[in-house]
Amino acid sequence: MTSRVATDKQGSRLVRWAAVEAVQRVPKHSQLGQVREDVGRRRGRNIGVVAAARELVGLVFYGLRDHHIRCLSARRAA
Q: Does the reported pTM lie above 0.85?
């Protein structure tokens, strides 16, 4: 038996699709582009795209909840 973890496919199919499509068009030098490229280099392109899409959904969630995204404002101040 392998220890691979399957994608859980939870949540809205449309949100998952939109997040993956959005991340595929992000430039390589951006924060999400770096996540996509780094994970993609180690684990494969599709896994890198999904990892970056999960990161994007997290940013959107906290942005909607808190009305501001802390990791982005900390980067601008530096």
A: no
